[in-house]
Amino acid sequence: MSRLSDLLRTLEQLDPQLAKDLDDEIRPLQKRLPFGLNFERHAPEAVELAGHRIRKGNKVRVLPRVC
How would you write the pLDDT of the chain (67 residues) with one tens digit per residue? Predict the structure, then answer.
């Protein structure tokens, strides 16, 4: 599910008419993209947490050395 779909589902509980109106506007935009590809905001696979110490069990990415 995309973030936009999640927000529409939440809005549907609060204001069904507004959710329907927004959905009616969004669907044509989604359909006109080739192959249905929508590049929406999503949770990143990796996040840089500068200043955090590495602890046992953490998943880390080894960066190349800069000379």
Answer: 478 888 999 999 999 999 999 999 888 877 776 655 566 666 667 778 888 899 999 888 888 888 7
The answer for residues whose C-beta is within 8 angstroms of residue 36's C-beta and 6 or more apart is: 30
Count H helices, E strands: the chain?
A: 2, 0
Burial (CB count within 10 angstroms: exposed 0-12, middle 13-18, buried 19+), residue 11: middle
How far is residue 38's CA from residue 64's CA, in Å, rounded to a whole number? Answer: 32
Question: Helix (H, G, I), strand (E, B), or coil: what is residue 49?
Answer: coil
